[in-house]
Structures are given as structure tokens and as C-alpha cells.
Amino acid sequence: MQQYLEIGKVNNTHGLKGEVKFDFWCDDISYLKQLKTLYTDSEGKGALTLSCVRPQKNIAILKFAEITTIEQAEELKGRVLFCNRDDAQIDEDAYYIADIIGCAVVDSETGEEYGKINDVMNYGSCDIYEVKKDKKTYLVPATPDIIIEIDFENEKVMIKPMKGLFDEN
């Protein structure tokens, strides 16, 4: 499991005192508010201390203790920031997308493997798992009637496929 997870991307500066506009990739801003530190790389290097997180429409405005000028904030533009998974709490039934990428998708009744999860998308109503096997790509809705169990330890997602989901015709 990855220890440092992508949390979002700095898209611009905000004001003159070093604040940045941040596209967050978590469910909502409350996840961001429980963090004290963000990192500039996936190894936990480049620690930045969060001193303020506030919403603005569908983004967040972040203020870091180490960044006090617009010139310093400019250096973060376009940069993906990371969080340490140990620094935040998530709901018991929630999971990180990074943990599901690469899991095998398996029929809960037949044991047939349909491929591995390559990406997770969301267009509003539910997550959609992009499942790849060889050169084929399938889109699997992550709804309770299809997803039977997620077994992170064995990297498997057990499903009950609906008719037509994996059919060739």
C-alpha cells in the first residue's frame, strides 16, 4: 500500500500572501481540514504545514506556514500534493482509490477473473471501475448489487456481474 497518497493539485495562487487555489481529489473538504501537513512528493518529502483550509465554490483555498508570498506560492502552481494516509481518518466502509487500483475483479459465483482495475471514475451517481484484461476494457458500476466484497488483503474485488457487462455480443 502506498503511504503517501495524491490529495489534489494546486491550480493557481490566491491573493498576495501565499495562499493557493487547490483542486482536491477527496470526497469533500472536511478530509483536508483534518490534515496538518501536505507533501510535495510521493515519498513524503517537501513537507508543508497547513495553517488554513477554506472552501471556495468547488475548490479549496490553502495557506501554508512556510509560504508567505505570492512568489513562493507561484512555485506550487501545477503541482500535485500528497498526504500521509496515517494523518487522517476515513469512514469504516470507505477506501482509498489507490488501494483498489490493481485489484483483480472476480466473479463471486464462478471464480472467473475479468481483469484488473485500472482506474476509478465518478460521474455523479457512483464510482465506475475501469477493468482491463488483455486489450479489452470494461466499465463496472460500483453499486451494492454488483460489488459483493472488496478484499484488500488479497487484492480482489468480488462481483456479481449483471447481464451484458462482460458479454462479447
Main beta sheet: 6 strands, antiparallel
Helix/sheet category:
mainly beta
Computed Rg? 19 Å
How many β-strands, per DSSP?
12
Number of helices: 3
Low-confidence stretches: none
In percent terms, what proportion of residues is strand? over 45%
Mean pLDDT over the residues: 92
Shape: elongated
**SSE series:** EEHEEEHEHEEEEEE
Write the layout of secondary structure elements.
Elements: E1 4-14, E2 19-24, H1 29-33, E3 37-39, E4 47-56, E5 59-64, H2 70-74, E6 80-84, H3 97-100, E7 104-107, E8 113-122, E9 127-133, E10 136-141, E11 147-151, E12 156-159
Parallel strand pairs: 7-12
Antiparallel strand pairs: 1-2, 1-6, 2-5, 3-4, 4-5, 7-8, 8-9, 9-10, 11-12
Task: Please characterize this protein's 3D structure.
The structure is a single chain. The chain has 169 residues and is mainly β. The protein contains three helices and twelve strands; from the N terminus they run E-E-H-E-E-E-H-E-H-E-E-E-E-E-E. It has a six-stranded antiparallel sheet with strand order 3-4-5-2-1-6. It has a six-stranded mixed sheet with strand order 10-9-8-7-12-11, with no helix packed on it. A hairpin with a 4-residue loop joins strand 11 (147-151) and strand 12 (156-159). The protein is elongated and about 60 Å long. The model has no long low-confidence stretch (mean pLDDT 92).
